[in-house]
Specification:
The protein is mainly alpha-helical and about 100 residues long. It has one domain. About 90% of the residues lie in helices and about 0% in strands. The protein is built from 3 helices and no strands. Helix 1 runs antiparallel to helix 2.
Length: about 100
Amino acid sequence: MTAAQVLDDIGDVVILGGALWSLIGGIGLLRFPDVLTRMHAATKPQVLGLLMVVLGVALRLRDANDVTTLILVGLFQTWTVPVAAHMIARAERRRRGGV
């Protein structure tokens, strides 16, 4: 086996793991009872799953332009998802009558 084949195989496993994390997050969105627990299911495993898929794709592609774009996608997700989750939690708290 060459190094490229090993990287491709590792990339496949990481992509599969990321897809599994995303599936777990989606199931959590359907099964959890209230907004705050659904918010947790929507943020934690989804971001981890996406970052794993991005890493797996980067291992498969290995081109500088592609990897740079994937890094930007990962950074954008890690920057925006916590803010979105905070805003959802804040809106839910206000809806329930909190300050």
